[in-house]
Amino acid sequence: MIRQCIYNKILSKQMRTSFFAITKLSVILLFILTTAISTEAQEYATDRLFIKEYSKTKCRSLVEEKIKSLKINRVMTLEQEDFLNQNVWSKLRLKLPLSPGEKAHLRKLKQKGVYSNKLSTKNIWARNAAKFKELRLKCK
Fold first, then answer.
1. Contact at 8 Å (CB) between 119 and 127?
2. What is the pLDDT of residues 32-75, one digit of tens each?
3. Which of 83, 115, 124, 138 makes the best surface tag, with the fewest CB within 10 Å?
């Protein structure tokens, strides 16, 4: 009789632990299923418009950042090169000392001549304006 009581206690204890394990597992499974189902929200027509406008705005901000960085880049213009040439020749005529950069520029001028493939400021502005317009049009 005592053995049977002990056996019944052990059996009921095992049943309780297995029951709790099954209930824990079912609760976890139920939680996972409810979170998976609840993530499917109702989509409204305005949501798509918002996402489309958001992506356009994001594109525009990226393009404006790129344009800003392109505006910072400086390119030597035809006018600046002419001014540098005049400065070097006038210093040479007046027998003033030339800086190392001016000496290198003078050597280059003597070897290649006064030919320049630089663009004028007006042409650079027009080229940049066209490039910036093209970049902005990609976001429409």
1. yes
2. 767 656 555 567 777 777 777 888 889 999 999 999 998 888 88
3. 115
Structure tokens at 97: 């000392």
Q: How many domains does the chain have?
A: 1
Q: Is residue 55 assigned to a domain?
A: no
Residue 16: inside a domain, yes or no?
yes
Question: Is 17 a member of any domain?
Answer: yes
Residues in the chain: 140
Calpha distance 43→27 (Å, rounded):
29
Residue 133 lies in a domain: no
Q: How distant, in Å, are the alpha carbons of 5, 12, 16, 99 from that of 2?
A: 5, 15, 21, 111
Q: Which domain holds residue 23?
A: 1-40
**Nearest CA to 117 among 75, 86, 89?**
75
Cα gap 10→4, rounded to integer Å: 10
Query: CA–CA distance from 27 to each of 35, 38, 39, 40 (Å)?
Result: 12, 16, 18, 21
